[in-house]
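Support reply, case 0932

Customer input (verbatim):
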Amino acid sequence: MLTGTEIAIAGLAAVAAGLANALAGGGTLISFPALIALGIPPVAANVTNTVALSPGYLGGALAQRGDLNGQATRLILLVPAAIMGGLIGAVILLFVSAAIFPVLVPFLILFGCGLLLAQERVRNWIRNRPESPGSYPGDRHSPLPVTLASIYGGYFGAGLSVIVLAVLGIFYDDSLTRLNALKQCISLATNTAAAVVFVFSGSVIWSYAAVMAMGALAGGAIGGKIAGTIDPAMLKWVVVGMGTVVGIVMLLRI
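Our regenerated output:
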């Protein structure tokens, strides 16, 4: 049974994560350290966090469904690759590297912070690169890069969107808006696949997951309503700052 303090911390962290994901990304860098601070072991914290935040990715995919027109071929190719990657990443976390995951956590957090910092550079590169009109929607490329990115997403997840968007920008000549819509579907598939594995792993702390799922959905809704009043860049720097401090503190404790 959670105490009022635990509910408040987990719930507020999830609201902040949902808000961050809606506006700037990097919500995992808020909610995951909060669970660690509450005394939850790293693997259980990661599993619980993934399950709790997964519903929020559906909202992002639905919001951009109109930009998926003409991308059916890509979805057929890449969504199964994302599902496979998410499953592999989840299995690696639970059955291969569970013992070393606590040691990797600070490095993963700092890596996620670095990816979040690179987000705007990736977007600008995709937006400004020369395009080859007429190459879509029928283009086909190997799904392997998406699978590899999704393995990372199933394993930890912070910064997954940046990696996927960069991969899509390399292999597909298309507008940023359309690639971002495709990224939303890939992120949803990856996290849902990992969450399914985690649900049956026995590692999810359901009391926290329930509180955080509601908080993340609320945060996402709030983010959608106040998107025009908050500077995403400023929020991103706050998230990166917090994540960097947490990562360094955890690194010093190893």
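We compared this against your earlier run and they match. Two observations from our side: Residues 133-138 have pLDDT under 50 and may be disordered. The first helix runs from residue 4 to 23. Please reopen the case if you see a mismatch on your end.
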